[in-house]
Amino acid sequence: MTSSRDRRVAKELQDIQADRDNSGVYAAPIDDVNLKHLKGTIPGPPDTPYYGGTFIIDIRIPDNYPFKSPSMSFSTKIWHPNVSSQTGAICLDTLGSGWSPVQTIKTALLSIRMLLEVPNPKDPQDAEVACMLMQQPEQFARVAQEWAIKHAGAPRQELNLSQYKNSDAPKSDDASRYKGFSKDLVDRFVNMGFDVDAVVDAFLFVGIDRNNGQDYELEEAYMGDITARLLGEQ
């Protein structure tokens, strides 16, 4: 008898396949049968040192999924502050305390892709890489591109280094930026690597209820619409 977990995973994989051309991410069982062990792929995002590469993600589905997050790690070696350059372990709230049952394998993969676009060296998985990004950002970009060429099959191309500048000045985090939405609700997406203002804009576009500023669980359909908006797919 098929378990509820397997039915959920099978449905998610169908959705990933159907939306592959739009989202760019993909996942399938390692052996076409075992739904507990999947292989995901993420394209290197444009305007990053990873562009043009294909990154393989090892995905393990726990018995109590979706109430516990999937375990994901990079099989492809990558130079990134939030990914171990040795083991491929990923530092991302979505795969830990930030997980909720309304999230999916697809939203987790999209969060990892966003992490490639917006690395967070202040919460690193690999301290050496984070130190390079903060102190020598242009050198970081060059090394990240070389690793993408060597390990992910990225083409050699000119890097735009203008975006890699030292800047530790954080944006204002005052309540006005949240425009009446729950900070905890907004921060679930911020922890995926999105900017506060972009998340709030997506909430307004999708029509999310402010709920008097109180936190609550979003339905899966809303999660998908918000993520699509944040990734420029709407």
UniProtKB/TrEMBL annotation:
The keyword Cytoplasm does not apply. The active site is at residue 91. Residues 4-153 form the UBC core domain. GO terms for molecular function: ATP binding; transferase activity. InterPro entries: Ub_conjugating_enzyme, UBA-like_sf, UBA_C_fun, UBC, UBQ-conjugating_AS, UBQ-conjugating_enzyme/RWD. Keywords: ATP-binding, Nucleotide-binding, Transferase, Ubl conjugation pathway. Transmembrane segments: none annotated. It comes from the Eukaryota. SMART domains: UBCc (SM00212). Belongs to the ubiquitin-conjugating enzyme family. This is Ubiquitin-conjugating enzyme E2 2. The lineage of its organism: Eukaryota, Fungi, Dikarya, Ascomycota, Pezizomycotina.
